[in-house]
Amino acid sequence: MNLADTIDHTTLKADCRLSDVEKLCQEAIDFKFAAVCIPPYFVKDAFRLLEYSRVKVATVIGFPYGYSATPGKVEEVKRAINDGADEVDVVVNICAVKEGQWNFVKSDLESLTLAAHIKGKVIKVIFETALLSNEEILKLCDICAGLGVNYVKTSTGIHGGATIEMVQLLRNSLPKTVKIKASGGIRTADQAKAFIEAGASRIGTSAGVLIVAEGAEAE
Question: Does the N-terminal or the C-terminal CB of the chain have fewer CB atoms within 10 Å?
Answer without folding.
Answer: C
